[in-house]
Amino acid sequence: MIATGIGSMPGEDFAEAQRIVLGELAEPVGLPYVVELPVRGAGATMIGRTLSLLPLDADLQPAGWRLTGTDGSAGLDQRRARSLLAQDLDTVEELTQGYQGAFKAQLAGPWTLAATVERPRGDKLLADHGARRELAQALAEAARDHVRELRRRISGATRLIIQVDEPALAAVLDAQVPTASGFGRHRRIDIPEASDLLASVLAAIADEGAEPWVHSCAPGVPWGLVRGAGAATLSADCAMLRAADLDELGEALDAGVGVALGVVPATGELTGDKQVTERGLRWLDMLGLDPEEVGERLVITPSCGLAGAPDARAALALARTSAASLNG
Hints:
Low-confidence stretches: none
Mean pLDDT: 93
Radius of gyration: 19 Å
Structural class: alpha/beta
Order of helices and strands: EHHEEHEHHEHHEHEHEHHEH
């Protein structure tokens, strides 16, 4: 087993947060990642960071992010987001000098973007079939470029992972995304389209030699669809899993696909590594799997919400020591 984090961390000091991640998630048990600090503002959130990479212009409205076109009319907030990410990657490059091993970064997925970002004329991109497809194509292009940039900056990365965050996927498929008025819901997206657009982004990542993961902390995630779209690892919050999810994740492990489990509480009182280890063992036992069988395909993480954790360093350390204990 190995341990990693979902992406976000508390505070505004990027360099300090990145040092914590590199220190607590060192190899061979840990998997460090590019830190996200959403408290710094809209441009530093999962959505703002991803929009900063897209070849599409956007600006920040009172209702949230809105696309404005491709003619260089990016708003001030998008330009700031691009500048902030460039500065953060400069810091990552500096702090990883001499580093050798796996490394992870995160992007918002096509369906979470479509359910969050507005079209130029208003309302979510989710409402427009052509806009959804254009967004996925732009995200695939951005993912390719991002993998190349990360490989250039983190020259010692022997394994590069891009985690695609899709917290809105279940809501999209269940017609639970509200319209702009708030009085209605966007129509349910067909399964084939949902799979195809997600698969196009994951394939772009894989084509660049990186490993595509998909993370969602929402209940009701169609893990079979996510796996079929090409995810190499399925990342879930244990508190949100149902009996049917356990079966799908167990089948994934049997098939050689990785599973990342959020078993360390991000907020509230931290348990000891013994309790976290027992939780992981109990989960494997329910699936009839032995820790030695799954090896590094099972990843231990904190649950979502680490940006609000009272002690994020301790949560990451607990994930690492629990993964080490599961290794025996």
